[in-house]
Write a structure and sequence with these properties.
The chain is of the alpha/beta class. 44% of the residues lie in helices and 15% in strands. The chain contains 16 helices and 18 strands. Strands 5, 6, 7, 8 and 9 form a five-stranded mixed beta sheet that branches. Strands 4-3-11-13 form a four-stranded parallel beta sheet, sandwiched between helices. Strands 15-14-16 form a three-stranded mixed beta sheet. It starts with a strand and ends with a strand.
Length: 471
Amino acid sequence: MLNLYDTQSGAMKPVQAEDGKQLRFYCCGPTVYAAAHIGNFRTFVVQDVFRRVVELGGLRTKHVRNITDVDDKTIRNSCAQGVPLQEYTAVWTDKFHADCKALNCLPPHVEPGAVAHIPEQIELVQMLMDKGHAYQSDDGSVYFRISSYADYGKLAHLDRQSLKLGETANTRADTDEYEKDSVADFVLWKARRPEDGPNFWPSPWGEGRPGWHLECSAMSHKYLGDTFDLHSGGVDLVFPHHENEIAQSRCACGGHSARHWFHVTHLLVDGAKMSKSLGNMYTLDQLQAMGYTPAALRYLLAAGYYRRPLNFTLAGMKDATAALNKLGRFDKELAKRAGDKEPTYRDLLKKRPEPGPFAAAWASLEDDLNTPEALGHVFSVIKTIKHADLSPEEAAATRRSFRMITEALGLQLPDPDADVEAPEEIRALADERWAARSRKDWAAADALRAKLAELGWAMKDGKDGYQLTKA
């Protein structure tokens, strides 16, 4: 059984399905206003590993992940570009799905969008109004009265005495992007404003649109009920988003909302927080243009322990590529000895193998998703058995056990003997270097070779041309 840290209790808890059959969990999805960056994908990859470990452990799942296609950012950007909101967000939704597929993330079973569920959100606001937990302000917007909910702040472990909840009547947060440490009545329904352009809907409180915090409560209630097994997101969502979500859900619908809260710690880049000003908000496309594969990014993101910050570096991408190649070579050796077909994730779900020599790695995954420890066990086992004289039957059993771990991590193992096609940008650098070498500009040629090496490519010169290989 998987044991996982629970944010609300501050303790380890077993991940359990309330009905004993199907684990029902909700993940906060992307806001589709631009391409998701690698910090976003750290959370989505870790959530994917979580789901795989649960399923390979023998439990069925119902995975719900929302798409935020109406909020301050999507409206601001679509209006600035003169593109209808749904047309604008459809482009970035498709991009997100393509990146998830490239990173080998399982699609959720249900993926509701905020715009398509505005009636459900209006219904939830009405329930809160009827029960005295919400009020309409002079500007026409509807706010949640946090002083009406006695348990506000428990998820984020806020000090009730310092909150002074009774003094919040005149303190309101009416945007989707207010300060993370601001304790204020938060907006449920935002009255129509000129800057929203054509993006408004009718409601009992006038034309407007839902606040950002509202959608997850409405959609988790619709697809998972008043009480469900687990809720996940990035650690930056603990407060205020998830705190507000709990307040809305419990006050409107009753129940306990989620019984387990699973949060993924943030990602750093070269030791610094990601920001546009630092130019370190990498996307998958940018990394691929440098010659790195989605499989290498998946490895790097999955290999970090989710409760600690993960420091992303390009050197780390090179290490991830090398580690994947080592795993790929081991798998290929076993395949040659076993002579059987490649076991897929679905095959392993149908007939779960015994962990065998990789039992310690599996135990690490079930111990709070300790993926770095699990990989450490995997590489230790590889050292001891890669040269063993295994029979075809032993090789097949070992391979299935090995693939249970790699499939739990969602790793895409490369064929170490396959040709790798260099991206256009890498090929252009290589051509430039070949031209510098041909004109005997050795300084430029050496500098370009070093640049290629920095990007993870080696260039071998021949009499009439060159060959590019992954370093």
